[in-house]
Amino acid sequence: MERDDSKKTFVIKGIGVSPGIVIGKAYIYDPLDIQVSFYKIKNARLVAKETKRFRAALKESEQQLRELKSNLSDLAGKEPLYIIDVHIMLLRDKMFINRTIDYIRDKRVNAEWAIKMTIDSYREIFEKVEDDYLRGRFSDVQYVGQRILRNLAGEKRGAIINIAEGVIIIASDISPADTAQMKIDRVLGFATDIGGRTSHTAIVARSIEIPAVVGLENITRLVRTNDDIIIDGTVGLAIVNPDPEMIRRYEVKERDYLDAKEISLKDAGLPAVTKDGYKVEIGGNIEFIEEIPSAIVHGAEGIGLYRTEFVYINRERLPTEDDHFANYRSVVGVAGLAWSTIRTFDLGGDKFFYDPKLAKEMNPQMGLRAIRFCLKELDLFKVQLRAIARASAFGKVKILFPMISGIEEIREAKRIFEEVRSELIREGVAVGDRIEIGVMVEVPSAVIMADALAREVDFFSIGTNDLIQYALAIDRVNDRVTYLYEPLHPAVLRLIKRVVDIGHEAGIPVAMCGEMAGEAIYALILVGLELDELSMNPLAIPRVKKIIRGSTLKESKALLERVLKFSSAVEVRDYVEEYMYKQFPDEFPLTEQ
Predict the structure, then answer these.
(1) Active-site amino acid positions
(2) What pTM does this model have?
């Protein structure tokens, strides 16, 4: 998927009504918007003519709905069909019909305008209803009215045409009848402005089992046909114009979601302890606070990585300290989570920060980003650190500094944090007594200098996503070289082993928060490396935990010792995959080979 870098990224929060994750191109579908003509009727003969036009449109509308109902008969479930029955009943409703005819006769207006007046009168009635479900049923009246209007205008809506495979439908709302006019096999998901868990879109999406998010309020104004979009129907998010890195992460989440559907969650809360007693802490990686419930349900013991740069999305102005604090407070101290590791923002380069003063960089992944950007833009950095320190008063907080390449950076970051923390204490603001500080080991120089860095921090967290691309000199979002991105490369395994060994020698725990941590096929290798914590996409947790509980530290160390003798990535992968298929045939069926 190619990205237009001129387009801003938006993250819109709505209501997830049909679970799943989907990535695709947007297609704007507008079945309701129609211009309503207005003109006065001068005599009784024309009143009769308008009434006849109205009744003909009613009859045609009912015939169309019956045809659509027949087309929908193959859908799983009966609810969409029942909704069409409701629409047919409305077309026959005497109050609806008589009110419209009265408007034609008494107000001397054309049929189109009379229908609009009827819809408006129903709107007033439904707005006074206190019950949310009943109030939401006004959309049925609105839909029926719009269908009659289209028939009065002589418009015939056919199926969606000229769209590529795999579109995500963006609309104000979507009725079952709308889906009958779509080439539904080409639709990946739905995102709508309005709606709730009982809305048309929700019912239809669940019936055809595709992800959907409703109640997004302004999605139709922010998205254009062919924009890149991600729909997460599990947590209720729509991400418009995601950057390549986010797309890649969500591709992993999409795959993990499909895997997780096959795994029972009844044991998700059990600890990841091997049969010979080796315990691995399991954290969840999150980007949005809406993901926290899913992390807990899938077995996260804490938040191992909170990517805070997303606090900056959807803003015309920079977030304030209180904006930051509100986000962190939502993560820290949550029941069921023992700790929260908050990574300071990885902004700059090509990540979400739209500042005209920043020149576009030739190689943004190795440019002015992460800790480099923070140490240059101290005001922004201090605002975030103050908010994290304030949040630490409510639960266990760990601060993780990204992209540390040398000792000077971590010392300066620590100095600034201590300065900010002292300021808050002088101001009488509560802060936590113990805030652990760690570095994200993702730059090869940090691996080489791990012994010196270990004396400066409380923990390491290995970010394999960047470490692998920097160590192997590949751009992981460049399709031409992605085949070289190999977590099981002997050089990568040796780098990880060095970090773990040095960390343990210095008496500090070592975590892994890169995507390698969530790959079940690598689980025993990571146990053999004796990592203390694995943090991953929450959807991957149950499977990784299950594998760890079904293994021993002894056999994992033997597996690691064996593969470290190989000199090529192909040899390592072939051996590890064959080993895991034999040890866990139920977790790695033949289809994965």
Answers:
(1) 200, 513
(2) 0.74
